[in-house]
Amino acid sequence: MKVLTEATLRATFKNKFPSQYYIDQDIIITPSAKQYLKEKKVELIIGKKEEEIKKNVYEPLKIPDERIIPKYKSFVGGAFEKKPEHMTQLYKNILVAKDHPRIILRGKLDSFQSQILELQVFAHQKKMDQLLNELNEILNFAREILKAEVLEETLKEFNLLGLSPEELRDQSHQPKKYFGIDHIFPSYEMGEMLIKLNTLRSSSREVEIAAIKAFKREYEVDRLDIIKALNRLSSVIYIMMCKFKAGLYQ
């Protein structure tokens, strides 16, 4: 199948533009090529008989039989020589709009990492080295999640703060058993550090919801490895809140 690209048109016209341009019906024209003709005010004529073509129309373009591979492809179909401003790469050379659910997920993960960094600065100022190091572990874990999503790789089995996913879930559900305190109900009275940790926990929930929206398929959900990791991410931050309240970071 033959493909007409913007690069081919540029090489053909060489800055001398006809008022009309003819191509056969079996030729695929890329979106960027159509846009190029529109910008140069060249009327595209597809599949008309040669006797109907005016004298100032270029001869039908001779395109090699081998398919021309465009630089970018749209996830929903189409091809581009240049990346449109409203689109970004989903993976490799595949483009999607910047409000695609997976791109929104990446933005949420990016914001989440920024919040961790802000909290690390605060922990450093308070000279809470253990909390600072644990936040760094969470930061690296968030980066691994993002990497696995972008590269479409399976997320490796993980432990956080020395705890397995099952242990994280259990400890976050039973703070009285593990830390000697009741569940934390957020209040301004609990202090700046706990409030900042709680904000981070809330953000992790937003990332998890964004992931479900990105990977939900009718009655199924793809990338359960990422969904599980994000679920445990909020658990580990809640555990850090419990440890702080129990005085384990002193």
Furnish the topology, listing elements before pairings.
Blueprint (H helix, E strand, L loop, with lengths): L1 E3 L1 H8 L6 E4 L3 E3 L1 H9 L3 E4 L25 E3 L4 E2 L6 E5 L2 E4 L3 H25 L3 H22 L14 H9 L1 H5 L12 H24 E2 L2 E2 L2 H22 L5
Parallel strand pairs: 1-3, 2-4, 5-8
Antiparallel strand pairs: 5-6, 7-8, 9-10
Helix pairs in contact: 1-2, 3-4, 3-7, 4-8, 5-8, 7-8
Structure, explained:
It is a single chain. The protein has a four-stranded mixed β-sheet. It is elongated and about 80 Å long. The protein has eight helices and ten strands. The longest helix is centred in the middle third of the chain and has 25 residues, at 101-125. The relative contact order is 0.10. It is of the alpha/beta class and 250 residues long. Helix 1 runs parallel beside helix 2. It has helices at 6-13, 31-39, 101-125, 129-150, 165-173, 175-179, 192-215, 224-245, and strands at 2-4, 20-23, 27-29, 43-46, 72-74, 79-80, 87-91, 94-97, 216-217, 220-221.
Distance between the termini: 70 Å
Strand content: 5-15%
- The DSSP helix count reads 8
Structural class: alpha/beta
In the sheet with the most strands, the strands line up as 6-5-8-7
Give, in order, the helices and strands: EHEEHEEEEEHHHHHEEH
Query: Rg, please?
Result: 28 Å
Shape: elongated
Q: Portion of residues in helices?
A: 40-55%
Poorly predicted sequence stretches spanning 5 or more consecutive residues: 49-67
